[in-house]
Every structure is written in C-alpha cells, then in structure tokens.
Amino acid sequence: xxxxxxxxxxxxxxxxxxxxxxxxxxxxxxxxxxxxxxxxxxxxxxxxxxxxxxxxxxxxxxxxxxxxxxxxxxxxxxxxxxxxxxxxxxxxxxxxxxxxxxxxxxxxxxxxxxxxxxxxxxxxxxxxxxxxxxxxxxxxxxxxxxxxxxxxxxxxxxxxxxxxxxxxxxxxxxxxxxxxxxxxxxxxxxxxxxxxxxxxxxxxxxxxxxxxxxxxxxxxxxxxxxxx
Length: 228
Description:
This protein has one domain: Rossmann fold, CATH 3.40.50. The chain is α/β, with parallel strands linked by helices. Helices cover about 50% and strands about 10% of the residues.
C-alpha cells in the first residue's frame, strides 16, 4: 500500500485534545491547570494513576476537562493495566492528518477526536534494573508498551501533534501556547518530535542491553513455578 505523502499542513495547531499518561508525575500540579487556562474548551484524556492525579490537580474543573481513556474508547483496561491506550480510536486521533478527507471521515465514523498533544513518559525501567537484587521478572514488568507507541505515533505526526516526553519542557510548551493564543507551532512540534524519538531509542537500548546481559539461568530462577 502506498504511503501518504503530505504536502499541506498548518504552521500552528490549536490544542483542543490532549492525552496524558505519565509515570513521572512531577510538574503536573502546575502544568495541567495552566494548560486548561490557556486552551479554552480543552479536553484531557487520561488513564489509571495519572487520571487520579489529574482529578486532584483540577478539582471541580475535572468534570469539564478530564475523561478516562476507557470511557472515551468504550473499552475497559486489561487487568494489571497491561492494555489501556492501545486502541484504534486513540491511534486514529494521533495519526490522522488535517487535510485528509478519508481521515476526517474515519474520525467522524468512530466519533473520535484528533489529539493535538501527547504528554507521556515511560515506566522506570532503568531505575528498576539499577536496584540491588532486581529480578528479570521485575525488569520485564517495567517494560512499557503503550507509552512508546503513543510517543512514536505522536512524534511521527509532528505535522499536527506535539509529543511532550520531558517534564522539563512543560514551561516552554506553556510559553508557546500563551504567546500563540492556545496554538503550538511547527518548529516546536518538530523539536519535540526529535526529542521523543531519542527518548524511545534510548529506552529500547536500555532494555536490549539488559536482556543481552542477563543469562537464561537468571531468568529461570525468577520463576519458581516454571512448568516444564
């Protein structure tokens, strides 16, 4: 199938729908209220512990600006939170292109929203494997799947989406939105996309290195009920 080759995009994108799912919740208490204030009518989609934190941060405003991903998609989370955001409506919202009639029809058909910003950081894999006595099972459990997928999809579609992977970037994102009246420009979207792909590449390298350095005997020892 031929790939979409895009020629027409918007220099500035109005931020109306944001997906937030973070392991590191530092800075949310200031970033999220300012985001809601700067972007009128904003809707935030979130999951699990992040959703609970955003409810606390937004207080009464959460009724108008916050929605569970499971409510949006119509699909409950998999036990253990293993599947929360891996859903067609989410990725349609992340990858749809503004001036593509077929994408617009898909959004309308599924009652999906075009997501303009993703605020995601990943399970603490490096921090986990740095702990003394960590087992291969503990390491495996901290391999993030949905996070890298959302980051990669939003970074690929920097044409329309801003991927925010580092809490240190919250102030500059807010500054851009305030200066541009709730919009974010191509230059910053592209810079954030560069950072996002570096983030996922580094994360995958840490996982690959750990697996390469961990002998199968250590793996077998981690599962005392190994069925043979």
